[in-house]
Amino acid sequence: MREMTPGPDFSGPKTADEFQSDPYEPEVGSLPEQSAQDGEKVNKTGTTTIGITTTDGVVIATDMRASLGGRFVSNKNVQKVEQIHPTAALTLVGSVGGAQSFIRTLRAEVNLYEARRGEDITMKGLSTLAGNFARGGPFFAINPILGGVDDDGHHVYSIDPAGGVMKDDYTVTGSGLTVAYGTLEDRYEDDMSNAEAREVAAASIKAAAERDTGSGNGIYLAEVTAEGVDIDGYDFDELL
């Protein structure tokens, strides 16, 4: 007769050592390990993105190029800035999938906040939420710019992959930032209007596109005011 092997003992309560995790703690998903070859297959925005505060609100500018492994242009018309709030917009920087997932998650949380409280979230609260998601969520390496307008004024924040949130009058992120910063700081002036900031931002993006292989193919501009967010795409010649 075949011998029966004893199965797990369910007769008594589990000891503390048998629990692998706190059942009341949220579980964070893990990402699969990636090789260098896998990384080259991921669509990345490369990117130069710029945010500038103005007397009218905020101007955000991005280029339009996506690449594979930084060597092949996979798309020439990527909109790298999205509205996430009635008076705020966020850029896409890093892997396209990670950035898109980040924007969808943040937009959903903003909608939940406003549905529960019956009021718009402040830019300080929105920037803190974005930083928390960047630090704790599985969004790969992202470094977006958040620009928005609320009752406290006009705001631009850069959000680093570790969740750090830094506010400034203007900021640049992406692979072309070193070139763009030089042009931006040379032309930036206090109390610029949206129209003046558009030209400065476009010149900075074009300068980066001349040297950075991850940036180019045109520019998307988002103008944020108390009335809302307006996003349009342009050729460089239309703005300069």
Automatic annotation (TrEMBL):
Species for this entry: Haloarcula salina
Location(s) in or outside the cell: Cytoplasm
Major site of localization recorded for this protein: cytoplasm
GO molecular function, one term: threonine-type endopeptidase activity
Entry keyword annotation includes Glycosyltransferase: no
Assigned keywords, A-Z: Autocatalytic cleavage, Cytoplasm, Hydrolase, Protease, Proteasome, Threonine protease, Zymogen
HAMAP family cross-referenced by the UniProt entry: Proteasome_B_A (MF_02113_A)
Function according to Swiss-Prot or TrEMBL: Component of the proteasome core, a large protease complex with broad specificity involved in protein degradation.
EC number: 3.4.25.1
Name under which the protein is recorded: Proteasome subunit beta
InterPro entries from the UniProt entry: Ntn_hydrolases_N (IPR029055), Pept_T1A_Psome_bsu_arc (IPR019983), Pept_T1A_subB (IPR000243), Proteasome_sua/b (IPR001353), Proteasome_suB-type (IPR023333)
Record-annotated active site: T47
